[in-house]
Structures
1.
Amino acid sequence: MKGNIIVGQSGGPTAVINSSLAGVYKTAKDRGVTKVYGMLNGIQGFLEERYIDLSDYIKNDLDIELLKRTPSAFLGACRYKLPDIHKDKELYEKIFEILNKLDIECFVYIGGNDSMDTIKKLSDYAIVTGQTQRFIGVPKTIDNDLALTDHTPGYGSAAKYIGTATKEVIRDSMGLVYNKGLVTVIEVMGRNAGWLTGATALAKGEDCEGPDFIYLPEVIFDLDNFLEKVGKQLAKKKSVIAAVSEGIKIADGRYVCELSANVEYVDAFGHKQLTGAANYLANRLSEKFGCKTRTVELSTLQRSAAHLSSLVDINEAFQVGGAAVKAADEGDTGKMVVIDRVSDDPYQCSTGIYDVHKISNVEKVVPREWITKDGSNVTEEFLDYVRPLIQGDLAPITVGGIPRHLTMIRHK
Amino acid sequence: MKGNIIVGQSGGPTAVINSSLAGVYKTAKDRGVTKVYGMLNGIQGFLEERYIDLSDYIKNDLDIELLKRTPSAFLGACRYKLPDIHKDKELYEKIFEILNKLDIECFVYIGGNDSMDTIKKLSDYAIVTGQTQRFIGVPKTIDNDLALTDHTPGYGSAAKYIGTATKEVIRDSMGLVYNKGLVTVIEVMGRNAGWLTGATALAKGEDCEGPDFIYLPEVIFDLDNFLEKVGKQLAKKKSVIAAVSEGIKIADGRYVCELSANVEYVDAFGHKQLTGAANYLANRLSEKFGCKTRTVELSTLQRSAAHLSSLVDINEAFQVGGAAVKAADEGDTGKMVVIDRVSDDPYQCSTGIYDVHKISNVEKVVPREWITKDGSNVTEEFLDYVRPLIQGDLAPITVGGIPRHLTMIRHK
């Protein structure tokens, strides 16, 4: 590659999004690219000409190792949707002006569904206007809802955290016994896809029964049936655990969290920010059974707990970053790197590359057959799919007992 | 020791309460004790004659290692307060009848302030009635509020988790930028003592600014001042972090969480269960500044995240368990094992033993001089005290990517 590279990060944080950034940087440098720029806050910052030369921040191999272990976009991210090309040609002209000024040959964007839309539009514009820059997408989302790739980097670490935290919450809930029992409702991220919520089942093993009930957004949530099931379980055991997706909906299409009128925020893509399903259900349970209830919202840690990242996930995130540079170098554009599962047992994956037009704006949900018939748990097939993705650890590099990250603050 | 030992666990879970149990068991066996019984759900289960022979569950050295890494009371705990002796002599007679039946020479109780009250009453009763059993307390509480001991086992691991999680939440909050800024309010356990909330400052380092504000329950909370401070900070940076104790109170004595009428539960010791301070403050901030807000309740994971335990803490928990058996063997009763800090740098501690009458029902809070003058952060002295307690890791023993615990389920 004769020109330079610019890389950006977009959308919600993951624990390994910077491992992909490290993969882009390392592979670009190994291939002799002169400058690897990082746009700050994605395409939004790029439009304001806010970018850095990554070599000012990544100075040696130890920095690469720290970057792999640093959660949340090192470069900052954005939720910015490019307008359709015909609606704002000037904006596209401005983007390409900046690209030309920096002598960019390859534009890499690490993100989810919405980010792939950016890659699609920019590569379309380049082709239509006869320009030669290449645009490659690198998948990233804890939600695991991107089509065509077996799974997305970020999901494995989130699943490992969720499985581990669920197991520890279950242990905690068994410490004290309450007269009328205790129901713990764990709320997990995932608006339309239950990949994250299903990962609570990873807590199950020879030493732990796992959650009693797991409700994914793929199945309509029946409140009466839920209350009845939990009631029956409370008669059998003193501590009952239910894991629910933030995105579970009742038959009339309303989110469970909307029943308690707790919808706060709509993002630039028109997505509602959902929270409160667990609290609503806990209140209903406590009213009906007089039991003690507790809610655990796994909060932003489920996407940022890099101290518990999966080694498989970190490595794959690094690989897809590198594969993006390789693909651009070989002339690809308008493509996203994907992960193909070559074998289940032993687990083996390789990277591939697909046309981004086939990927963007399609959400991959959990297949119905991986959810139990009554809709209150996941099957062994689901677990067989997830387990390989959570294997191994990359020990945090700690200073004073706390994980060290690579951040821009160090260099101020 | 010619007789047997019985050991129980009481009060809220910690990540290392079972390391103390392992220390009791191992030391007892090394000293040739025939039977080590475990009472199920503490003194409450003991009164129902629910107990196990621990050797049925701890079968080898690997089980000891698993037990050290298993959070929340292996034996189950209780919140049961013994009545005063003169109010229910029959109850005490029943307890000693069971002790005699099992040929118990030493009764070890692992717990916090309330549990030391149990040790005090039982040892008083034995002395008054001329009986020879020995009663020893082993300190345990994430709250670190026990008097006379430098710190309590369980606190170091909680502090390590809180510091790490806070740092990851701070990283996460910097990923996306919001027009009017983002304020993240982290709510931490600790009703009257700010040891846990202060531990959020551990996030601070060369690579992280740490929380902007930290509010401990030791200082009266001034809402207007808080809003003003956060407003000024929002003018300077796009992501502001405030950590607050669940127990912060305003000048008239009301808890901040009570301002939103969210008090749910009073336990057997008359303690209110507090939650909701962060939500209340986030709502006020969002009203006043139109900023985006996020609340992170560290939930029960702050006391149960054994996957991130401090090695120092695990080892000290093990040592105080062993020291309890040794003390009883040497004739002590009505005592609690304590940790004495011999040296700060290098950190060195040894175990000691104190009269439980001096310990029970006294809450140790954070010294005022370890909190900044304006009451919105902790000082370097606070951090110097905490840092040695969070050092080192004991890698989880994982099966299928998830930590394995020692639980009774395995043996069903």
2.
Amino acid sequence: MPDYQTILDEIRDEVQPLLTRGAVANYIPRLADVPREKFGMAVVTLDGQLFQTGDATEGFSVQSISKVYTLTLALQSIGDRLWQRVGREPSGNAFNSLVQLELENGLPRNPFINAGALVVADVVLATRDDPRARLLDTIRRCSANPILHDDPQVALSEKAHGFRNAALANFIRSFGNLENAIDEVLDFYFYQCSLVMSCVDLARGFLFLANQGRCPWSGDTVLSPDQAKRINALMLTCGTYDAAGDFAYHVGIPGKSGVGGGIVGVIPNRLAVAAWSPGLNAKGNSLAGSEALERFTSKTGLSIF
Amino acid sequence: MPDYQTILDEIRDEVQPLLTRGAVANYIPRLADVPREKFGMAVVTLDGQLFQTGDATEGFSVQSISKVYTLTLALQSIGDRLWQRVGREPSGNAFNSLVQLELENGLPRNPFINAGALVVADVVLATRDDPRARLLDTIRRCSANPILHDDPQVALSEKAHGFRNAALANFIRSFGNLENAIDEVLDFYFYQCSLVMSCVDLARGFLFLANQGRCPWSGDTVLSPDQAKRINALMLTCGTYDAAGDFAYHVGIPGKSGVGGGIVGVIPNRLAVAAWSPGLNAKGNSLAGSEALERFTSKTGLSIF
Amino acid sequence: MPDYQTILDEIRDEVQPLLTRGAVANYIPRLADVPREKFGMAVVTLDGQLFQTGDATEGFSVQSISKVYTLTLALQSIGDRLWQRVGREPSGNAFNSLVQLELENGLPRNPFINAGALVVADVVLATRDDPRARLLDTIRRCSANPILHDDPQVALSEKAHGFRNAALANFIRSFGNLENAIDEVLDFYFYQCSLVMSCVDLARGFLFLANQGRCPWSGDTVLSPDQAKRINALMLTCGTYDAAGDFAYHVGIPGKSGVGGGIVGVIPNRLAVAAWSPGLNAKGNSLAGSEALERFTSKTGLSIF
Amino acid sequence: MPDYQTILDEIRDEVQPLLTRGAVANYIPRLADVPREKFGMAVVTLDGQLFQTGDATEGFSVQSISKVYTLTLALQSIGDRLWQRVGREPSGNAFNSLVQLELENGLPRNPFINAGALVVADVVLATRDDPRARLLDTIRRCSANPILHDDPQVALSEKAHGFRNAALANFIRSFGNLENAIDEVLDFYFYQCSLVMSCVDLARGFLFLANQGRCPWSGDTVLSPDQAKRINALMLTCGTYDAAGDFAYHVGIPGKSGVGGGIVGVIPNRLAVAAWSPGLNAKGNSLAGSEALERFTSKTGLSIF
């Protein structure tokens, strides 16, 4: 086994010059206020060992990373029927684009673009009594963090500035691909984006995807081995917006990012790794976080390819 | 002067076989219920003579034809500053397309596509105390019909099925090109679409555009001669959705249509002409109405070209 | 009758400050070398009177203006069957765009975008023995200029830099909408673009479109009254690239422009007017030329609307 | 080790009903004439063991599969400088689309869409004396098949029907992203598509990508370990046209397909597997071949995820 602790500490030092190069998301004040020199990283291996460096236990807004969890819930609920309502192809357009949605009659390309996540949210809403509690409980158990919570101020801000997502939801609804009230779908979506997790939470919380769908500490079977494998495939092809090809090329593992600066990767049958740095690159992924993950796979020689 | 009455009666007979070929708009029940064998036509000349045939005095939902009046109010209010918020080019896409709007950063191509009409509605809302009364009063005076009114059931239905327009409004708002609350803009837009006019109302009500902006009976100066001329230009290039080129080619005069089956044309310094038949062609214009206007310009030899 | 001579001289003075603001087309040296302070303008009335100012007799490369003549020849040859191979709608995209062509399966939107002009060229090539001679003869007779000629150097340069047009031609061919050899179509297209005309030639040469399709001096019936009217409609909706709406709005008459800086307008039953200034605006139309035509219709009060 | 022979034979039996469901590529006669009931499959493991079933030694036109080899040559020649001329992102559009190319100014999205392959061909042409010999020699050595050859009739047919590729090449050239003469680029491209390989050839010939870039039998270092890894990443995200997401989801390994019906997959550090069946699905990938690879990864439990 590589010396993960040393590698993480090296990476933390190496990315320092990058921390000021990215642009912190500023569409809502709560995100804009996060200091951009923050950097944390954590690794959790299949046997439960934890390695961390920097601000690895500091919570941040997970934003789009939550889409992996709502996809998980939707697959738990309706299985492969989900794919009648959302595709599995990379979008080849910016992550909130309406163009492709119009050309493809309201069927979002994949569950990780906003349009797809709204449809997934609609599925989750339609199938359970208390979807927020179910989502929170799932994440808490996966992350072994019973006090993990949301940030209501973020959700409120998202809602106040959420015209693009409201446009998407109305547009999808006009094609008949949303069942619940639009405001409920949007509120649930803003809720999921507002969850607060640290690198340690994320590394722990994604380990079930490296472990055939089973959470090592809770013993929960979150997904079937096959479903876990397929979420990994989706993260690889669609997990980092319009930079998925580049991420696969440079980092070489399934990953999911959020505009809060978090980014998490999965190495099947090995480990999960998370990094956080609020400054984003032009594609909307954490600049130093992407670099950190690339260095991690280079230094460890780990890759799925 | 051509024998307009004979010409209108001929046309009414000639278009009979077409009345059953179009598809009546069915996205709301109130429109879907209109019998498709209806046909009316009316001509009003600059000196105030009225000619009519068929169901020319029966009211129908004007829908997009109202966009000419809200554009008129917007030009009255803010003049050429309007063009900082909406373009003047044909769209080259279906009338409710979001694609072009995305590529052009929230600036609608022209005031007659739905996106542009929403921005125009926003301008009208922003500048007067009671925009509905102002709109209704303007149309009543232009049409010399003091009891002209809206159909609240149509507006309610439009709202209940208005996801595409809500998507447009939210999308435009995300680019900062709407100032009023989205629901207010939509409500005003659905109100204007729900106005009920007959062919006679429309022919009278558009005559100011053939008359240098001045309404012959009320004596009102609705617009300056220059503004009237320019609205005519806009109707010619953008007034009949993605069939404007075809309409200019076949009919050869400025015109504006609505999905209620109405279509109205202006021959500058001569007359205004309106036709109504609920069945629509593939481009969303009245099938028999378009044909009726083409026959009218052919038989009279009138054209702007 | 307005005092055309005075008006032209006024306009010439007024546009002087604009002459250096446009960008001369520089994709081929022969065009780039034209001095940008050139300006000419000419008017020919239906009764044959000629008015001119500035560099009105200096020849320049007509470029896209020639598309009106090849459209004329194509309509002479196959009439309305032409519209099975090319549309009549404004494009809503840049004039050489392949995007729309792909979405619409190789049917160009109108005869004045490059794709449409290539199809028109193909039609002209397919129907006569010596299409170049036929084209040249038609233009010479219309312009009453028996020594009007092409500039072979321009055609050669166009060909050497004509990758975008070659892409269009191959693309259209892949949809089966070209019949002749691609190189022949391109050569004919580059030939037509290379024709050299002055403002006086153009004003004379477009007068048949203001005169029901008949050339006043030669007495030739170039087109039927109906065909002439319809070409005017096409020029209004599609004649000035993606600025057709703006041109209709500001100038208010049918017109056609070329990247050589020429621009010509038709006022049905009255006159034809041409202006030339090599500097182009952002839409590819002569900057001072467009302004000159706008001032002309303002000062004379002439407009079709 | 799974019992590969039994698995292959099972798959051969199971896919029989699918063989008649796909559509054989018919844009050139040579491809259209291939009997669609053909099916072959071969696996070669890292230690050189070969397993095969059905028509596994019958040659067919590799078409787009050759793009992996020209990419290999281009990386050998200019390394990462290649990425200044072609991207690494999935296209989200049909494989020969010009739309995205226009929106992105002539920089193809990835080396496996036709536009990208033309740029790669241009790079290969620019850097060596005899690129055809170099390409053929590389493939022969990798496949351990010294008599592997092209099919000149296929190349000729491709050229005769190659208008779409000619459009692409001219279009790319118009952006300055091709250096060699267009005809040379196209001829080389048609040559590479016309190479004839069997499933056994392909499984052997792709093994270097499962083996850190080194060919086991020749001992050649074809690429560095890092480069091999990255080609695998590219195949996963972009190797099967607009079905890459679906292929990753269902098959879960890097793969590359061609319209000749071939499809080859790589399981890093394990094996290469190839299948062939001429009938294609709606996305242009071998219908039975895709299914065969999916069954192979299911039955063996092998996947990169």
3.
Amino acid sequence: MAERLTAEARRQALGGIPGWTDIQGRDAIGKTFVFKDFNEAFGFMTRAALVAEKMDHHPEWRNVYKTVEVMLSTHDAGGVTRLDIELATAMNAIAKVTSS
Amino acid sequence: MAERLTAEARRQALGGIPGWTDIQGRDAIGKTFVFKDFNEAFGFMTRAALVAEKMDHHPEWRNVYKTVEVMLSTHDAGGVTRLDIELATAMNAIAKVTSS
């Protein structure tokens, strides 16, 4: 099972994934992605969903038209693990190629 | 442009779409869909997204694993219109065939 990252490991990991920050009041990381329109936003979500399902590690996310707010945490570990960093990294890569 | 439904028209419309209720504090309607797993939940979202895009009327929604919370409102009209009722009706139909 993935273990909670230490504060230092987490700080370092966040440094490598632009836009992701600690979420206040929760042991989680988050990012708000803003796309051109709903087509791009949901395209991003679809690609991210396939990655998440394959990892068996799923996001908590909210979509309003062109905006996707993502929150990642590992329930079993009670905090942020390497799984969250991996999914966040994948999401950044997907957003990069999704945005026109 | 779609116009805000009267209180009576809205009450009647909600009677025809099981599970949808007024959202407290907002001029909107909402429903929480619970599926078997993420595959079903995101399958539902994907089908609903296609309908929403075709209608050019989009939901505000939040997904956590097998749960999808949906909030519908028509921004231009400042409240609930027939567009929201139509999308809610379509979502109920999609959820029915998506759930195993």
4.
Amino acid sequence: MSEHYMAPLDDLNFVLNEVLDYQRLFSLPAYEHADVKLAGAVLNESARFNEEVLGPLNSIGDEIGSRLENGRVKTPPGFRDAYWKYVEGGWPALDLPLEFGGQALPLTLQAACAEMVNGACVSFGMLPLMERAATRLLLAHAPRDIVAAYAPDLVAGKWGATICISEAQAGSDVGRISTRAQPRGDGRYTLSGSKIFITYGDQDYTEQIVHMVLARLPDAPAGTRGLSLFLVPSRLLGADGRPGAANAVNVSRVEHKMGLKASPTCVLNLEGAEGVLIGRENAGLKAMFTMVNTMRLEVAVQGVAVAGAASVKALRYAAERPQGGPPTARPTLIVEHADVRRMLYIMRARTEAMRALVLETAYQLDIAQAGAVDDRAGALALAEWLLPVCKACGSEAGFEVANLAVQVLGGHGYVADAGVEQYVRDSRVMSIYEGANGIQALDLVTRKLGEGGRYELFTARIRADLTRCRGQAPLAALGRALEDALNRLDACTRAVVAGLSKAPRDVEAGAAAYLALVGVVAGGWMWLRMAAAANGGSAQHRAKRAVAKFYIDYLLPEVRTLECRVMVGAACLDSLDAETLTG
Amino acid sequence: MSEHYMAPLDDLNFVLNEVLDYQRLFSLPAYEHADVKLAGAVLNESARFNEEVLGPLNSIGDEIGSRLENGRVKTPPGFRDAYWKYVEGGWPALDLPLEFGGQALPLTLQAACAEMVNGACVSFGMLPLMERAATRLLLAHAPRDIVAAYAPDLVAGKWGATICISEAQAGSDVGRISTRAQPRGDGRYTLSGSKIFITYGDQDYTEQIVHMVLARLPDAPAGTRGLSLFLVPSRLLGADGRPGAANAVNVSRVEHKMGLKASPTCVLNLEGAEGVLIGRENAGLKAMFTMVNTMRLEVAVQGVAVAGAASVKALRYAAERPQGGPPTARPTLIVEHADVRRMLYIMRARTEAMRALVLETAYQLDIAQAGAVDDRAGALALAEWLLPVCKACGSEAGFEVANLAVQVLGGHGYVADAGVEQYVRDSRVMSIYEGANGIQALDLVTRKLGEGGRYELFTARIRADLTRCRGQAPLAALGRALEDALNRLDACTRAVVAGLSKAPRDVEAGAAAYLALVGVVAGGWMWLRMAAAANGGSAQHRAKRAVAKFYIDYLLPEVRTLECRVMVGAACLDSLDAETLTG
């Protein structure tokens, strides 16, 4: 069994080139400097880089972890070197604008490459993610001089970045952030407060770390409408524009976590640190939301990445591990046992559905950004609908598939050497950070449903694909099951929409199940499209058709439980007071 | 939030005294030396011991772990002392016979106490479990002189024990065990081979470790019919009956595992070690099976224990953690959020159903052992039916509930300090060891269904309880839902039984779902009984009725997905050859 990462190039290429309308992107003005051939070369090179450079770091990072030494974070051996190779390769800037040194390639391609980064080493991938997110924040909201001072080095990956939101008393409830920003009168601000769970809050890769901080100005309104966004560098820029004196930002703690051990999760103390305002006063949260799409999609990518990496290891193990069968004969390979096959099929079905859904969402974001003007609103609406589903279902698929991989390997999966149990630990946080999955579900039902026609657009796309498949016998059978599921989803949606005004607590009670239901149906949609695309005789195409059928037969029936849960209402949750429930 | 374990005494007492026919046990001759009052005192004392002595060790054990030093295992600080306190308290011998120094109390009580041991520290609980299992093996199969030489010190906990089954090429497939036993001509045997995954294969608590080893005699038949059972002490007994010279049993490795880090999982090399035969030649596996009930029930107990401990921490956190609500008001406690409640209710519903089911199964094993002669066969049949369900669903409940606890705590749950993520890691192996859950499912459909009338007995009990509840309005509503689920299970069972001869591969494909379906229905049965028992106005009784309703409304609908999966057949798993599936 290979210890290191093997990139799923064939599967990525299948989705990009055979399922999505990928070529169309390169006819758009924004991407006409590139073409499918170049994009293919980038993908191949990404696979090579991540297999060779990052893959071997994953278990070292887990074993040693990042830790605090004399007030600074020390990352595990090899990470710093790998980071600079990543920078030299131009990987931080794939989808960032040309004018700041980026490559302005589609987000779709970036997401495919990010799957490989995160499949090789999620702990590593966290820093480039923060850099891209911070860059997008600056480009969207910062004044020109700030962009000029910070964007080029961020885009190049020469400087690190963090996003500082959470505080001890303010996790999901960002409105209670209490970090203070005091105007100094010279256009700058003095920030004081303590931020927790800051990913790569410190590191030893880059000379500068650009902290994007939500804080509260004096007399700011309570709640989220009183939050402003500040850029707080770890070192103040000198007159020459280079990082100079240290700013008053100190790391007091690196968390001891279940996983992602190489990615330092810091408590960051702002002790009168100097910062500049980004965007308007009290509009910080709204500004932060411009990077939410970037971040949530990337967490979905992380989930797919772990699911993909875990699948590859389990599939290879099952294909090589002899166990069982008549005692006088050579043992059977475990891939032949029905229950092992069941797990392997679930792994493939879940992973590949989510991979396709994530890339479809990235594709819609590309069209929303750079497509023909008439296409943009619809693409954005569809992407906005799919994003919370991708984030929640992607993160859960990562964890579920990693766990199935452990089960396929049995006792060997539970020991560290196989490199599989790490996937379970690393992926566990994905359901929590960047908006816990319960928050994603509320976002879906309260913000994405109703106005905007997003749901209608989503289901219209599915029905169009169903119509297209109706004439082809095997696809028609898949389609009938999907159509039944879609009808059940329609019924649930009508109930949820009706409940939004009349019985919001009932909607909240069913929100998690509703999101899961949308995810299962969206997965079925992806498999219908993949099965339709896989119309040849190659092993890959035969496998896609078989896994599509498995998804429809075995996973799609989850709708039957989920529809009950969507409809269950809050009465069964609210019959006990808090003390009786928890006492 | 309390860092340490809080024993669920009230919940245990509720099941024992209000749901089960517990008092009846103490009217049986085997237990008439005890009574409910004594049993209650034992339970209270167990709670105190496990909260005070074992609870504080759990995180230390995780952090430091057991490791190999100069060829011997060194356990974490405090474990050895705690072990001897456990021995002094008489805890190893609760349900072992009086004549060897045990207390001959019901297994039902032992299981309740074992929940508290494992809730406080699963890693600790592994050794007493091995000792009880080894003792039962000896009592059932060893010649008198061996029993006399080994049983008293094992029962007293003065000597440790292991069960040595797995080898590198023989995990679930025990028929391929290749460890050799050569007769020496003096009634003793020389054993050579290497065993893996040996729990407490070495430790620094006891001077003697009694290894129970499956090995193969010369010219033994291939497969499981050629396995014999041997007792191999770590130190050979001298003429005085005390441990003397070291036997040739060596630890070459302690695994680096995902969890259970204080419990040393060893590679054990038998290098011409001396052993004695236990039971008949080539009947070793059958002998081992006399302890399977003990072991599988205990794994289910472990799952319930972790679920219970994780639940308590999450419930307390939710009751104390402010987060959300209008920004100008004091923050809401998270227990008031619908989605947090949903998770807390799932945790309670799953944990308490499994706790009741496990204690019910222990109770049936007590009746099977010590009940009126006419009751024994039925009780054994019911217990045999429930055991694989307890093992698989109990282990999965432990992991599911631990994960929900992490989710309730959010980012705080992902860091080690909260002591919750450890539950996820510790419980992950429970679905694997002592017969992976896929093996439990095969056991249920191929051995427990069909002949023996076990299924019929199980469903007859449920229907009797349904009849009893029909007249009481709230129970009748729960009952109708349960009856619907039971009817669906009946239909699935008919299909599975028919498939056993005609289409065994289809049965295997649906086996995991079938076991899960039985588990969900059995949980509903437990909740019906608990709701019926909780007919008073106390907070505890009100909570039980509310959680019962939640189980029926929210969890029982899982049958609708599971029934599809039971029926799905093997075609969707077998359409690809191994290479195409895994390539």
